Amino acid sequence: MSELGRVIEAVANDVVAAQSELNRLDGIAGDGDLGATMAAGAAALIAALPEINDLDLAAALRRCGTELARKAPSTSGTLIATACLRAGGAAATDAAAPEASATAIAARLVDAGLAGIQQRGKAHVGDKTMLDALDPAAAALREAAAQHAPLPAALASAAHAARTGADATRDMRARVGRAGWLADRSEGNVDAGAYLIALMFESAARHAPQP
Question: Which of 26, 155, 159, 181 could form a Cys-Cys staple with 192, CB 3.0–4.6 A?
């Protein structure tokens, strides 16, 4: 199995394991199905791994995006799918710059995914969404790339930033989507989408290939 494939498998398994907690958080001011839909998407990625392992980075990310779009057709699933597709496009562009470090590539891919989610979701940092975890994670990766940090250390920093950002949503008031309509119910609770992003970065950091 490729290094990317191993990370995808690990993150997917951790998302499946967190299904109940994701459903619980999403049910506070949402449909309560985030865990179920993301677990279905994660299972689809695991099933597709034999094919994903044979693809280059750009094609593998695009395949992840299309699988999630088909098998996790929730709002969050669609946004994560969009991030993967945008990251795949960025990876195809970066293929022309093979001298870039793994950390610099990761930062570029996460930035592309972040931009895709912002554009499609029409949300901003502070609206109590997954962006409140993803934006600080992206910033941490950019800083790590500027400092020429190795990828495992960069991912650990990004995971810490994502978890800090997710925890901060507890004190935010939701402004978009169904959670925005039920903002009073969402107060005092971590946003489910931000929790998902933190979980994914923490899993990636734990299973990142060591130098």
Answer: 26
